[in-house]
Amino acid sequence: MAFELKEEGYRLKDILVIVGIPESTYHYHVKNFGKEDPDRELKEVITELFKAFHERYGYKRITKELKKSAWCINHKKVYRLMRELGLKCVKFMRKSRRYNSYKGKVGKVAKNRLSRRFSTPIPFQKLVTDITEFKCLGEEKLYLNPLLDLYNGEIIAFGIKKRPTLDLVMEPLKKTIEVLGAQATYRTTIHSDQGWHYQHNQWVRTLKENKVFQSMSRKATCADNASIENFFGILKQEMYYGEKLVSYEELKRQIEEYIYWYNHIRSKEKLAGFSPVEYRTQTSQLAA
Q1: For the Integrase catalytic domain, which residue ranges apply (predicted)?
Q2: Could you give the CA distance from residue 12 to residue 27 in angstroms, rounded to a whole number?
């Protein structure tokens, strides 16, 4: 091949520079042309896992999933094979847009009980909540309000509406209180920003009636609510950014499916590779 290129007046190394292929890579593939790929089966498994997790997993998570399936493999090799296969997680490209529901002081502003202490070894002890906005096809928008448990990152309940009404926060709050009544073993604190929903008398009264502590971030201090903002960022980057706009009903369905997947399937490194629900289930069994 090099001789043929030279006859035409081109040098091989010049061609390789133009197409962006290292000369060593070229000679490696020429030498191994026609040979059976020893990593063929592994590459097929990696490709299947990458697709099964909706192209949201990078090489580190893929490595952990391989180990769960009894593959003894180094993360560096998985990284190399994924590069060869062109499998790249490209979901994390933009920062999430934050919805701001602050309208000034319209009710009671509670003290900040969390003070950025976002970790806890006790389920349902510390919950955080906020509202985020999505654009839909046409002029419609979608508003999401989840309540997240800082124990394992699990979404306990959530509301989805076309407008940021009071029901958007009250409906998931009532569902959460039902869960707390059945499972909580420690008095719960629910932390939010100073949005008008969380200053509203109905929200404050419901918390008091159910012996739930209220906690609020200080105004213009987004770090006070970083845990729920981090969830919004992951959600939007993994299933919203880079995708075509869809109708409200279709986006609602996609978000509901994603939250189930996030709770039950998506592994987290700080949870020893378990999903939030798996982690809660495992730790409750050990405690018993």
Answers
A1: 117-284
A2: 11
Q: Apex CA 144: angle with CA 138 and CA 145, to 5°? A: 160
For the chain, the straight-line distance linking the first and the last C-alpha, in angstroms and rounded, comes to 69
- Measured CA to CA, the distance from residue 121 to residue 86 in angstroms comes to 40
Q: What is the largest CA-CA distance in the chain?
A: 88
Task: Evaluate the CA torsion angle 251, 153, 122, 194 in order and state its sign.
Answer: negative
Which of residues 282 and 202 earns the better pLDDT score?
A: 202
- The proportion of the chain whose per-residue pLDDT surpasses 90, expressed as a percent, equals 46
Identify the pLDDT of residue 3: 43
What average pLDDT score do residues 152-160 get?
A: 97
Concatenating the DSSP letter of every residue in 134-197 gives EE-STT-EEEEEEEEETTT--EEEEEEESS--THHHHHHHHHHHHHHHHH--S--EEEE-S-HH
Nearest to 156 by CA among 147, 165, 169: 147
- CA nearest to 192, candidates 229, 217, 226: 217
Q: Which two tokens stand for residue 56?
A: 């949201």
And the tokens for 236? 């939007």
pLDDT band at 285 (very low <50, low <70, confident <90, very high): low
Q: Give the start-to-end residue ranges of the domains of the chain.
A: 1-32, 39-85, 126-287
Amino acid code (one letter) for 118: F
Q: What is the pLDDT of residues 130-151, one digit of tens each?
A: 999 999 998 899 999 999 999 9
The pLDDT value recorded for residue 215 is: 95
User: Cβ(201)–Cβ(136) under 8 Å?
Assistant: no
CATH code of domain 126-287? 3.30.420.10
**E-assigned strand segments in 56-101:** none
Residue 28, CA atoms < 13 Å, CB-side half-sphere: 6
